[in-house]
């Protein structure tokens, strides 16, 4: 019961924070376009994503900073989430289709037990997942995902380019990822 109350409180805080942030003229989300839950930011409107680092489900540590120079697709998921199960094959297919062009994927498992999360991943996905049962990493983003599942695409400079606040299909995700992967890096 306490866990459900904590989850409800976290989701309420995220929703309220996002609503307030959206009213602020300087917020990243207010500078980006939102079409049907897909928020896309032009390169000159992107802000640097926060540190995304932690313990991997399978052991070891991961820090998204190690993949600077690559497009990083970050998917927030839970084993308890039916839409997460539905999109898993599409995420893996998009990962396989785009990894040769400098794209990597990272899952972030939230509000879950490690055993259930590992069982969910087995045979479904080949990219790594961080274990974040308290959803702290989602709360750190300038444009919080607000839903599970959610997918955030970081450009090669580690900036938030796209946030998708719903389950995604390969037909929706792949063109977004390929477009960001084809962008020229900003001149230094």
TrEMBL record:
Residue span, Thioredoxin domain: 36-182
Broad class of the protein's primary localization: other
Keyword Signal: yes
UniProt keyword list: Cytochrome c-type biogenesis, Disulfide bond, Redox-active center, Signal, Signal-anchor, Transmembrane
Transmembrane annotation, as ranges: none
PANTHER family: THIOL:DISULFIDE INTERCHANGE PROTEIN DSBE
UniProt protein name: TlpA family protein disulfide reductase
Native species: Micromonospora solifontis
Lineage summary: Bacteria, Bacillati, Actinomycetota, Actinomycetes, Micromonosporales
């Amino acid at each position: 019961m306490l866990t459900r109350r904590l989850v409800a409180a976290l989701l309420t805080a995220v929703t309220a924070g996002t609503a307030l942030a959206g009213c602020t003229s300087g917020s990243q989300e207010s500078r980006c376009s939102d079409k049907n839950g897909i928020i896309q930011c032009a390169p000159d409107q992107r802000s640097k994503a926060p540190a995304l680092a932690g313990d991997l489900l399978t052991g070891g540590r991961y820090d998204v900073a190690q993949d600077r120079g690559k497009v990083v697709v970050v998917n927030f998921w839970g084993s308890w989430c039916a839409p997460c199960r539905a999109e898993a094959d599409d995420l893996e297919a998009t990962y396989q289709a785009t990894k040769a062009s400098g794209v990597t994927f990272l899952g972030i498992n939230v509000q879950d037990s490690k055993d259930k999360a590992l069982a969910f991943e087995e045979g479904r996905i080949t990219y790594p997942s961080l274990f974040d049962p308290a959803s702290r990493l989602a709360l750190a983003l300038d444009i919080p995902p607000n839903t599970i599942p959610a997918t955030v695409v970081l450009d090669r400079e580690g900036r938030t380019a796209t946030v998708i606040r719903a389950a995604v299909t390969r037909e929706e995700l792949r063109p977004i990822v390929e477009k960001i992967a084809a962008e020229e890096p900003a001149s230094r």
